[in-house]
Design goal:
Length: 93
């Protein structure tokens, strides 16, 4: 397994309960694919550098994971499908 840093931005209009559920759902993608989430850091609501999907703010979440390539691919696939996630990036450490 390789170490990755994963960051994604959630739409600012998502309510707190739905946001918590979304963060848990995204973490479980790694757990269900034989990977480990070592750290979850929620940066909270921040201004975006530029407008994304008509939003000027977003809720930032940073994950540190030890993941298999399959888990990374699945996370990327799901994050691109979810309407509540407006941006994501996965970087190998």
């Amino acid at each position: 397994m390789k170490k990755y840093e994963v960051m994604y931005i959630i739409r600012p209009t998502v309510e707190e309960e739905a946001r918590i559920a979304l963060v848990n759902e995204m973490n479980e993608i790694f757990v269900n694919n034989k990977s480990t989430v070592t750290k979850v850091t929620e940066w909270g609501m921040k201004d975006l550098a530029y407008e994304v999907a008509d939003f000027r703010k977003g809720y930032y979440v940073l994950l540190n994971v030890d993941a298999t390539p399959e888990a990374v691919a699945e996370f990327n696939r799901v994050a691109n499908i979810k309407e509540d996630i407006i941006r994501n990036i996965i970087v190998a450490e």
